[in-house]
Automatic annotation (TrEMBL):
Iron keyword on record: no
InterPro entries per UniProt: ATPase_NBD, Carb_kinase_FGGY, Carb_kinase_FGGY_CS, FGGY_C, FGGY_N, GK1-3_metazoan-type, Glycerol_kin
EC annotation from Swiss-Prot or TrEMBL: 2.7.1.30
Occurrences of domain Carbohydrate kinase FGGY C-terminal (ranges): 279-469
Gene Ontology CC annotations of this record: mitochondrial outer membrane
Organism: Salmo trutta
Gene Ontology molecular-function annotations: ATP binding; glycerol kinase activity
Name assigned to this protein: glycerol kinase
NCBIfam families, per database record: glycerol_kin (TIGR01311), PRK00047.1 (NF000756)
Top enzyme category: transferase
Amino acid sequence: MAASSSRVMLGPLVAAIDQGTSSTRFLVFNAKTAELLSHHQVEINQSFPKEGWVEEDPKEILQSVYECMERTCEKLTQLNVDISNIKAIGVTNQRETTLVWDKETGEALYNAIVWLDLRTQSTVERLINKTPGRNKNHLKHKTGLPISTYFSAVKLRWLMDNVDEVAEAVLTHRAMFGTVDSWLIWCLTGGKSGGVHCTDVTNASRTMLFNIHTLDWDPELCKYFDIPMEILPKVRSSSEIYGLMVRSIQKWFGLCLQCLGDQSAALVGQMCFQEGQAKNTYGTGCFLLRNTGAKPVMSEHGLLTTVAYKLGRDKPACYALEGSVAIAGAVVRWLKDNLGIIQTSTELEKLAASVGTSYGCYFVPAFSGLYAPYWEPSARGIICGLTQFTNKSHLAFAALEAVCFQTREILDAMNQDSGIPLTQLQVDGGMTSNRLLMQLQADILCIPVVKPSMPETTALGAAMAAGAAEGVSVWSLRPEDLSEVTSEKFEPQINPEESEFRYARWKKAVQRAMNWETTEPISNGNGETSIFSSVPLGFYILGSMLMLIGAKYIAGQCPL
């Protein structure tokens, strides 16, 4: 958003570091009007060392933050905006992504294991097998979460078991664990020279090590995963000063930092402060959160119970029900990078709009299994309903529909848990710029979809929490002081019968994607996974071998 030179006297400004799965951004807001003044964005590279593995370079993540800050600073200077008016920086981040670093050298000991990563599938299966009744919800009464590859504890356990440098650092008391927020805050506040090792309640609640009732690390959970509590960061509220920023460039000295997990930040940015209010964020994944107030509500329909925010050291925690979808915007990246059917993300809308239908093609992008409401790690991606008429435009349309159908599934679960159906859906995130997607979403949900005119609600939420922190106090969160938000509404345009028909076909496709992979890979002795770890493929190959042996035997018994 452009800013004119007349904005020299803007009053207090608040910035946000938005470190997401696919990119990092730095944004600066006017604390009085919530106006976005300037920002800069840098894409983050992902690596896929093995099937199901997803990693990112901690150094690249940190460097991308510095680059975004410097470029945004340059843009503000060109606009004659005094950057000394920036009073605080809020950090918002991809949650669950797991890092371990050496507090003496300041170096990460392995790549960041991204929340989408599936390498811990066999660990999860072993943990579930040893629970009474093989119950994946065995820890839910404390954590609000099922035992899943999604959360940090199993990723940390894998690092301790499989990376020698991590194991040694733990034994010699040099290891520090954290999600991306902890890594950034530690580095930005001095690193090995006195950096602050902390996290907030929203990020801590995504680890499976945190008790959402006591709002602290739980000794029994840490013992369950055999993780020493000394490596964990100190848990703070989502709106307080954690420490002052240290940077070699003088202009960043002294700025205070705080953090809020990305989906919680979007809930704050959408101003969902009342019980029953909800938002859906369309990013790499898709995340629907509904404010449930001061008491945690346990889901009976496959949703997560999580800490929504705690806006001050002495303020009560607020909780939310969450529906988490692993693959939303990531399907666009897959179509671009893996299949090459589009060159840019914006092309997808044009391609899908050119046909206006999937022509019976359904795409279940279960690249990392299925998250809410199924929590089925053995599921894999599937495209079905193909005919000779199907082309890349139909596949593009089916990909957009997949995002909408997955949202419908978690919205249905949320309505069942709450007993009060949502009458409209507030949305945000990068994919909301796709107008076709927003219209499809309204059609498939059969309720209006409301998109704010300022889409950067995740960063806005982090800035709001930072600006409202005690000791900063330049941003008021009182309802009467919150800025009016302009928005665009997408109304359903198809009849409910058609919507239900398409949704029923989607559910049928989801069942086809289930139980595709075994959870215990079979090793060939060299650390490689055997082809027989896929049950359907294993049966096929085994059956083919038996048929060939049988045919050879019969041929030998019946000479011509």
